[in-house]
Amino acid sequence: MKKANFILGVAIIVLVMAATTFASLNQFVGRWKNIDSNTKGVTTLNIEVSGTKVTVHAWGKCHPEDCDWGEVEAIAYGPTVSSNLTKTAQALSAVFETNFSKTLMIIKPSKGNRLQAEVFTHFTGGGRTDYSAVYRFKRTTAGIKEDCVTFNPKTTTVAQKQGRWKIVDGSHWLFDFGNKKDEADKALKIIKHYGMNRSCFVGRPDPSFQYMLVSGNAPVGRFPGEDCISFNPNTIEVKKISGRWKIVDGSHWLFDFENKESEAKRAFAIIKKYGFKFSCYVGRPDPSFQYLRK
């Protein structure tokens, strides 16, 4: 009982000392790898959220394969007793037990879209010293399937093909603008401004989600005269609304996937992976070209 009270006391102290930067529960979601590939401690975290229920699955360094610590239910903490945890969770705690130890893990958001885990291990048997350690994790992109077409922004042009204005790279057409030459010209300027060289899709041949990359990274910075909607990638969620799967940020829905739940979840993972913060358009309300950027 004394040891249990000690662990709880440590948790309270750590949480009180935590930075006051608030996050949403969704910021914790994902598979995370220790940034130190040579760590002798916690190597991997897998965090899942359903409503306000949080589970943490952890792995520790072992040879030849990492040791599976198992999955436990975690506790989320907000800044006040009346906090909305979904929107303002600032830390998680999870306890992992074996027949010879008890480990308390405090997980908090860190700069650069990373997580920090503070670990306190108490050995229930004699002979070993209790210890604490701090680890930092980055979200892993393993398992996210991406469908992209590569092109050269330096050789892309606007051309009229069979009466329709298109952006082409050599003999390959990339984007179709119908009779909207002005929109094709603007889209080409955007592509060249950022140096976009990959056009990516979720759900071809009729994609429910499209995005552009610059050598494997998100486009960064503002384009003069752009038409963009900002959102917070840390607070987005996948929700079923009136029978349709959507990605939403609070009460605002951003992308509609109809009945395609798997595509909505893949697009959600892609937004998290690249840290997109703006959804941008050419030609609303019926845009002929869309892209996301940071």
Structural account:
This protein is α+β, with helices and mostly antiparallel strands. The chain folds into two domains: 2-139, Lipocalin, CATH 2.40.128; 147-293, no CATH class. Helix content is 16%, strand content 45%. An eight-stranded antiparallel beta barrel has the order 1-2-3-4-5-6-7-8. It has a three-stranded antiparallel beta sheet with strand order 9-13-14. The longest helix is centred in the first third of the chain and has 16 residues, at 2-17. The chain is elongated, with a radius of gyration of 23 Å. The termini are far apart.
> SSE order, as H and E?
HEEEEHEEEEEEEEHEEEEEEHEE
What is the helix tally? 4
Mean pLDDT across residues: 89
Oligomeric state of the chains in view:
single chain
> Can you give the helix content as a percent range?
10-25%
For the termini, the CA-CA separation is 49 Å
Q: What structural class is derived from the secondary structure elements?
A: alpha+beta
Q: Round the Cα radius of gyration to an integer and report it.
A: 23 Å
Largest sheet: 8 strands, antiparallel, barrel
Main sheet: which strands, in order across?
Answer: 1-2-3-4-5-6-7-8
How large is the share of residues in beta strands?
35-45%
The geometry reads as elongated
Topology:
Blueprint: H1 2-17, E1 30-34, E2 42-50, E3 53-60, E4 67-77, H2 85-88, E5 91-97, E6 101-110, E7 114-123, E8 131-139, E9 147-150, E10 156-161, E11 164-169, E12 172-176, H3 181-194, E13 198-202, E14 209-213, E15 227-230, E16 236-241, E17 244-249, E18 252-256, H4 261-274, E19 278-282, E20 289-293
Antiparallel strand pairs: 1-2, 1-8, 2-3, 3-4, 4-5, 5-6, 6-7, 7-8, 9-13, 10-11, 11-12, 13-14, 15-19, 16-17, 17-18, 19-20
